[in-house]
Write a structure and sequence with these properties.
This protein has helices at residues 10-13, 24-33, 35-42, 90-98, 102-113; strands spanning 47-49, 52-55, 66-69, 78-80, 86-87. By secondary structure, it is of the alpha+beta class. The protein has a 5-stranded antiparallel β-sheet. Strand 3 (66-69) and strand 4 form a beta hairpin. Helix 2 (24-33) crosses helix 5 and helix 4 (90-98) crosses helix 5 (102-113). The relative contact order is 0.16.
Length: 122
């Protein structure tokens, strides 16, 4: 009688199904380099006011409750002053907008920036 197979996640049983690792630093750096474009896509109702992008909320409507720092040492940091949600980089913003975990936010942002991993990651 054969020993039962361990209950491994599907990706571990089939290495070809594993997603390549994401480099959060590279994705964040690329997003910061193109921050106005990224913010216009993530928060389409927003606008630039001084050094910040202002939007109504994570849904992206017009308003001033959500603010994202666009330049300087704090570029990419964001806060929604109505809800108390905040984050320190473009990946955390992308994840919050999509209502997903950081890793999925990184994947979405990488796709948006044309940084999809080599090898056909899903």
């Amino acid at each position: 009688m054969r020993a039962p197979l361990l209950a491994l996640p599907r990706a571990e049983r089939h290495p070809i199904l594993r997603r390549p690792p994401l480099d959060f630093e590279v994705i964040n750096r690329a997003a910061l380099h193109r921050l106005p474009e990224v913010l216009a896509r993530l928060l389409p109702g927003g606008r630039i006011i001084g050094p910040e992008w202002h939007a109504g909320s994570l849904r992206g409507e017009p308003g001033d409750s959500l603010r994202v720092r666009m330049r300087g040492e704090r570029a990419g940091r964001w806060a929604d002053f109505a809800t108390g949600e905040k984050g320190g980089d473009p990946i955390s913003l992308a994840a919050a907008v999509a209502g997903t975990r950081q890793v999925e936010g990184a994947r979405r942002l990488a796709r948006m920036l044309g940084l999809e991993p080599m090898g056909g990651g899903r």
